[in-house]
Write a structure and sequence with these properties.
binds 2-amino-2-deoxy-6-O-phosphono-alpha-D-glucopyranose, alpha/beta, 251 residues, single chain, 10 strands, seven-stranded parallel beta sheet, three-stranded antiparallel beta sheet, 17% strand
Length: 251
């Protein structure tokens, strides 16, 4: 795992945006794995800026999102469909026919998971997967205890996750209890993975990740089983990591 330390959220977002743009420059038909949450918001702003001022084009890019809440209308302000459209897709030239997000109101959640796996199979492998990290170590919505061999599946969200994500809703009661997420196995099939972590709220999770707390109770630790992971972490998120420990372990 390569660890890149940066000063703050803005520097993290900038660095991540340049990595994505380099990927697109290398291959304008790249498949991006996209994430939601507060963490990638700055990254998406920088990508929009790069598109508008430098002409970076997403015309041939396809994107596969990690997850979606179950039970919300697609147009609900808290859905990840809305999140992605409002914070990225509507501002760049990506074709909406090239973006994939799990259906939030499928007739059958089980069939939706199968359909999404087929999408990943058909479109993928993902060239560059962006990941945030939950304060409890979740990736996508793979909560502590998730099966490392899982593909797309339905999850019951941890109470801490619903609390963390409540700021995207009017109240915590509105946060759905379940979601569909790409599984750990599907995530690890990506060619490259870029993990972003910013702020004190992530310091404990970053410490556990870099101290190689390898266990199913800490889903992000499965990232150690992938050979091309880059973590971009800012000073606040890095502050619980002992310098020596991280230098040794991040090799
Ligand atoms: C949600 C998403 C995750 C994301 C996490 C972190 O739970 N499903 O993919 O990594 O939020 O959220 P934030 O970036 O807001 O801290």
């Amino acid at each position: 795992m390569e660890v890149i330390q940066v000063d703050n959220y803005s520097a993290m977002s900038e660095k991540a945006a340049r990595m994505i743009e380099e990927q697109i420059c290398k291959n304008d038909r790249s498949i991006l794995g996209l994430a939601t949450g507060s963490t990638p918001l700055g990254l998406y702003e920088k990508l929009i800026e790069g598109h508008k001022t430098c002409g970076v084009s997403y015309k041939n890019v396809q994107s596969i999102n990690l997850d979606e809440y179950l039970g919300l209308d697609k147009n609900h302000p808290g859905s990840y469909h809305t999140f992605m459209y409002e914070n990225l897709f509507k501002e760049i030239d990506i074709s909406m026919e090239h973006v994939y997000i799990p259906n939030s109101k499928p007739l059958s959640a089980g069939e939706e998971c199968q359909r999404y796996d087929q999408v990943i199979e058909r479109i993928g492998p993902i060239d560059l997967q962006i990941l945030g990290i939950g304060s409890n170590g979740h990736i996508g919505f793979n909560e502590p205890g998730s099966d490392p061999n899982s593909t797309t599946h339905v999850v019951e969200l941890a109470a801490s996750t619903r609390k963390d994500n409540a700021h995207f809703f009017d109240s915590i009661e509105e946060v759905p209890t379940h979601a569909v997420t790409m599984g750990i196995k599907s995530i690890l099939k990506s060619a490259r993975i870029l993990v972003l972590a910013s702020g004190k709220r992530k310091a404990e999770a970053v410490k556990r990740l870099l101290n190689k707390d390898l266990s199913e109770s800490f889903p992000a630790s499965h990232l150690w089983n992938h050979e091309d992971v880059t973590l971009i972490v800012d000073t606040d998120a890095y502050k619980l990591v002992s310098q020596k420990g991280s230098e040794d372990l991040a090799r």
